Amino acid sequence: MLKNSLYFVYLVAVLSILSGFVKSRNHIRLNGLYVVDNTEEMLAVMEEKRGGLKPVSLDEDIKKYYKYLRFYEDGTAVGVTSTGTPRKVVQWLNKEHEDISSGTYQVRRDSVFMTLTNTAGSVVYKGWISGRKIRMSTESLINGYKGSYVYKFKKIRTQNKSD
Question: Is the pTM of this model over 0.85?
Answer without folding.
Answer: no
